[in-house]
Specification:
Blueprint lengths: L2 H6 L4 E4 L2 E4 L2 E2 H8 L3 E5 H18 L3 E6 L6 H9 L3 E4 L2 H9 L7 E3 L6 H9 L4 E4 L2 H14 L3 E6 L25 H11 L5 E7 L9 H22 L5 E3 L17 H18 L6 E4 L3 H4 L3 E13 L2 E6 L8 H5 L5 E3 L9 E6 L8 E8 L7 E5 L19 E6 L2 E6 L4 H5 L6 H4 L7
Parallel strand pairs: 4-19, 5-6, 5-12, 6-7, 7-8, 8-9, 9-10, 10-11, 11-12, 14-16
Antiparallel strand pairs: 1-2, 2-3, 4-13, 13-14, 13-18, 15-18, 16-17, 19-20
Length: 446
């Protein structure tokens, strides 16, 4: 285990006295004060990653919106922090729009996406002058126009195009092929463009594409930029539409596993800028506003999940560390066979000599965080830190097996505050009701 390589790309994590710290804060002390399992979010790391994206885009584009993807992590602490940085928001639901607006995001910087929006969601977006509603079918386009007409308003709309580009990522987070449910194909796009010319309550301003998440190869992202820009140019030339925005979605991945090389946002911004501007220059067209929708890239490595080893046991020829965090707390491994670095919190000067499977308390065979992971010889009561859990951790956490979603703390320099309390049974069942006919039933033996 080369700890120096792991920490090199996670500069907010440090080793002091052979123990793991997040900045200047001891993870062991956090576990003692707040218990485990425990999510720990570093606010400064989120700011650093956002600034990285902002600075990268500033070098290459005149106007842009960093519309943070709320599905990655919609914690109040996270979205309010990003709102303070004037980040936009990409959301997929009614409640997502409410959350963005209540967190201080300007309506003009909110992007509503998703392949199956309800009429109520479309109405809310139009009423609140959401900056961009991305339609994904001919029928949805007509719904937007109809609702806007009822309201006496004009809706700002983008069209999501399915470019049929393979993104070389996990099959469950790839979205850019015609076998997926997202967007319209190129032929159908032309039908929508023609229709937009005839609709009075739709203002088509953008083309949109998103080909998948956790992409670590620039080539599909480069191809996406080329193909979407070409369609943007054709839409203006062939239909005389006044488009002014290109939304490239998200997808830039993060190095969960140590790699020889990985994509930075500067790499990405440079590639899409170069390809887009070359095509526009040939047609003497002005540079459009750019929207990007990063989620994982901003929040993934900001967070750690602390968990305690309850038991160490051997079963067959395998050694198991059975911990107090479960798949309900963090779903990515069970869903996507995802890899996450897992480190001991204490005595990091020990040699990594034992091979363990690491599993949780949930009664599912899929409740395993790692197989055959090299660690020091571990004992019950010791702490482990699962790294890079800021994306799709809390946002997917649930109460399966009647378990609480963990307590969450956010750290800022030397300050620590609770960002989410651990749930009680009352919290879990407070929206439920026992029907009166059950209350009135008399106990009857079978």
């Amino acid at each position: 285990m080369d700890l120096s390589k792991i920490l090199k790309i996670r500069s907010h994590l440090r080793i002091r006295g052979n123990n793991l710290f997040i900045r200047n804060i001891s993870l062991k002390k956090l576990s003692e004060e707040y218990g485990t399992p425990l999510y720990v979010i570093d606010a400064e790391r989120i700011i650093d990653k956002y600034k990285e994206i902002y600075n990268s885009l500033s070098k290459h584009f005149k106007e842009f919106n960093i519309a943070y993807s709320y599905k990655a992590n919609h914690s109040l602490s996270v979205v309010n922090l990003l709102s303070k940085l004037e980040a936009g928001a990409t959301v997929t639901s009614y409640l997502g729009m409410e959350l963005a607006l209540s967190s201080g995001v300007s309506p003009s910087n909110v992007v509503l996406v998703g392949p199956s929006k309800t009429k109520e969601e479309l109405r809310y977006a139009i009423q609140n002058n959401i900056g961009l509603t991305v339609v994904e079918s001919y029928e949805e386009l007509l719904s937007v126009d109809s609702i806007a007409n009822e309201l006496g308003l004009v809706a700002n709309v983008g069209i999501r195009v399915n470019l049929n580009i393979k993104s070389n990522t996990h099959k469950k987070i790839a979205t850019g092929l015609l076998t997926h449910k997202f967007g319209v194909n190129v032929n159908e796009l032309h039908l929508l463009l023609k229709k937009c010319k005839k609709l009075n309550n739709v203002n088509l301003v953008a083309l949109h594409s998103h080909i998948g998440s956790q992409i670590l190869d620039l080539n599909p992202l480069k191809r996406q930029a080329i193909e979407l820009t070409k369609l943007y140019i054709k839409s203006i030339e062939n239909y005389n539409l006044k488009l002014n925005t290109l939304d490239f979605g998200g997808g830039v991945g993060v190095p969960y596993l140590i790699r020889k090389s990985y994509i930075t946002y500067e790499d990405y911004a440079k590639v899409i800028s170069t390809e887009m501007k070359a095509l526009l220059k040939n047609k003497n067209l002005e540079e459009p506003k750019i929207i990007v929708e990063p989620g994982r890239y901003i929040v993934a490595d900001s967070s750690i999940l602390l968990t305690k080893v309850n038991y160490v046991k051997k079963l067959g020829n395998k050694k198991w560390l059975l911990v107090d965090a479960g798949m309900n707390d963090f779903m990515r491994v069970a869903l996507y066979d995802a890899y996450h670095e897992i480190l001991p919190v204490e005595k990091l000067d020990r040699k990594f000599v034992e091979k363990y499977n690491i599993g949780g308390p949930v009664c599912e065979s899929s409740d395993v965080f790692a197989f055959n992971r090299m660690l020091p010889s571990m004992k019950s009561g010791e702490l482990l830190a699962m790294l890079d859990v800021g994306a799709y951790g809390l946002s997917m956490a649930n109460n399966y097996n009647i378990r609480s979603i963990p307590k969450t703390v956010m750290v800022w320099k030397d300050k620590v505050e609770v960002a989410r309390e651990k749930e009680s049974l009352e919290d879990i069942v407070k929206k439920e009701k026992v029907p009166n006919f059950i209350k009135e039933l008399q106990l009857v033996s079978p």
